[in-house]
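Mods, move this if it's the wrong board.
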Amino acid sequence: MAVMNNTIKEQGFSLVEMVAAIAILALVGLLIGTSVNIFYRSYSQAQKIGNELRRNQAIDRIAEGYFANAVPFPWQNDQDETKYVFLGDYSELFLTALRRTYAESTGALRFIRLYVDGDELKCDYSSTPLLPWKSMGDQKYDTEVIATGVRRISFQYAEINDGVIEWTDTWVEDDHNGIPLAIQITVEWADGTKERWLRRTAGSSGNSTYGDREEPSS
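Not the wrong board. Structure tokens:
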């Protein structure tokens, strides 16, 4: 009988052994949890950076493709007055831009309108003039969502007066000659950060301010 009791004791675990095993399991669980948390945060950060890069590249494409290639394009309005298809408002922009042409292309010009709808930065575009003085409901165009999570946008327009570059928040043809020398768009995101893009118009060379980031004020 004594031999049997000794065998049972040898096959069991002491309290100290059980506590040690539980502590080791808890440590392993903690290490796994910490590793998973670090991986998740790294993945989330990488995903956030990737999303920001894609949205910024989309806006940079608009600035490079349209702002830098904006040209004066005359058209008659309802009063038979010749006006440029260009209107620069503080939060909305109509312009005409040159574009690359291909065999199947419908034309060398792209007419666009940029604006915010809800939290989306949108671009209406057409190969036929989008006229600022006509209702959009009476015109044919396609729409592309450029970026989401946008709180607001604002435009500024540059011109030279007496050799000095001046900036204005609006651009109406009656007040200016031709189209702006340069166009700048500022995008304020939902988190309060701001980014700006700047291009000279009419195919002039210009550098983007891609990466010019302003953090929200505390």
